[in-house]
Recover the amino acids of this structure.
């Protein structure tokens, strides 16, 4: 149950990080006047929206979530990392397809806070 | 006949006279003696008393957590061992205990699990109190992105422990399943709670098929799994294997937390069951086919598909024959 990364937070990058975390500028969408926060992946792996193929997804678009809500699982090598939201708000966008690979720091969810 | 004597002794519990065994199974008293000696040679602990007969002592499957704690007192792992007769899943219990502050290196072991976990909602067969089901709580001071390496090293720790206890040579199927004679004897599943740049804790769950009978597995697993007792031809001491695994986990953990993954990669590659083989990887929505090319510096599986070399993070792997 990992704490999600607010993109604006200062995060020390491991040297092997394949891509930089989104910058603070990227976290807001001024045109829409929405206060968006992104939940990003803390590691490389496979993104799952449910704990197993038969289970309900953790969240749907437009769901209102509270801080600590489990958003998804990232799996790498039979290591399952449950990702929690560290903000409360509305899920505006799910940015990654279920079952696809994600990179370190990749945006997973856009949350309107 | 040996199996029949064994089953008979198991069903009796206490002492049974040689004559009674002979009569029940329709063999001579002398044949009973011979078979019992042969069972003893295989590692079964059978107690003989002149006046009472024979008794099967199930010493092979005893877990004495206090003696493990004593043996591990000076180390990092196993200083605290919590032993349950039965539990939902040792990983669930490890997770719960870790949430309430259990220290790194604590071990949760259960004789049986009512909801043993496999990958992606699958289950791990855990009804036999003769196998190993345990979880280790870890609190490594590394970023979450480093954590998968620990699952690679845990496979090595188990493979080596099996090798020194049985003399057999286990192979590892990426990332951390252990196979002997092409059949699975061990699975490892890790669950983690982390913050963006820090691991809060990990529950490293290990299941090893030790002394159970292969006939006891569910029919779907037939031909796919085996037990150490079956491949070694004799029952093993569960506790000895358990202690050795913990000792090995600690050894490799220290190496990995000092940043030396190359030694692990080398050792792992030596035991890899897939390298050079044509495999399919079913991961999420995608299935790829290619030649397994070992692991990279992070432990990810490399697969050559035509001209492209792909990095695999997770998935179900099948050998194409």
């Amino acid at each position: 149950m990992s704490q999600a990364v607010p993109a604006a937070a200062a995060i020390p990058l491991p040297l092997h990080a394949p891509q930089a975390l989104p910058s603070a500028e990227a976290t807001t969408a001024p045109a829409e006047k929405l206060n968006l926060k992104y939940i990003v992946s803390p590691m490389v792996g496979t993104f799952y929206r449910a704990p197993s193929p038969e289970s309900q997804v953790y969240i749907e678009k437009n769901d209102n979530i509270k801080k600590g809500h489990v958003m998804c699982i990232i799996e790498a090598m039979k290591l399952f990392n449950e990702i929690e939201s560290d903000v409360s708000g509305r899920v505006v966008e799910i940015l990654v397809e279920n079952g696809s690979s994600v990179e370190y720091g990749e945006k997973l969810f856009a949350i309107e806070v | 006949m040996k199996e029949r004597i064994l089953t008979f002794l198991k069903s009796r519990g206490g002492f049974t006279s040689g004559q009674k065994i002979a009569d029940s199974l329709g063999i001579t008293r002398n044949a009973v003696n011979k078979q019992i000696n042969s069972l003893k040679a295989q590692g079964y602990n059978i107690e003989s008393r002149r006046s009472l007969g024979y008794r099967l002592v199930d010493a092979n499957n005893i877990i004495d957590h206090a003696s493990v704690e004593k043996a591990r007192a000076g180390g990092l792992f196993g200083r605290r061992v919590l032993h349950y007769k039965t539990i939902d899943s040792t990983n669930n219990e490890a997770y719960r205990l870790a949430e309430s502050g259990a220290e790194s290196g604590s071990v949760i072991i259960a004789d049986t699990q009512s909801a043993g976990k496999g990958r992606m909602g699958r289950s791990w067969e855990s009804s036999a109190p003769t196998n190993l089901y345990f979880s280790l709580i870890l609190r490594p001071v590394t970023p979450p992105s480093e954590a998968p390496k620990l699952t690679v090293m845990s496979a090595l720790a188990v493979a080596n422990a099996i090798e020194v206890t049985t003399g057999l040579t286990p192979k590892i199927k990426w990332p951390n399943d252990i196979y002997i004679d092409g059949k699975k004897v061990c699975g490892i599943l890790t669950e983690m709670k982390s913050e963006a740049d820090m691991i809060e804790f990990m529950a490293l769950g290990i299941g090893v098929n030790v002394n159970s009978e292969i006939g006891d597995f569910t029919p779907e697993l037939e031909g796919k799994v085996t037990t150490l007792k079956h491949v070694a031809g004799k029952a093993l001491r569960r506790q000895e294997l358990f202690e050795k695994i913990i000792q090995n986990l600690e050894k490799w953990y220290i190496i990995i937390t000092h940043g030396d993954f190359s030694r692990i990669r080398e050792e792992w590659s030596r035991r890899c069951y897939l390298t050079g083989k044509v495999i399919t990887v079913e991961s999420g929505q995608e299935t790829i086919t290619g030649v397994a090319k070992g692991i990279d510096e992070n432990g990810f599986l490399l697969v050559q598909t035509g001209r492209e070399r792909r990095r695999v993070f997770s998935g179900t792997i099948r050998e194409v024959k």
About this structure: Chain A touches chain B through 38 residues (CB under 8 Å). Residues 1-26 of chain A have pLDDT under 50 and may be disordered.
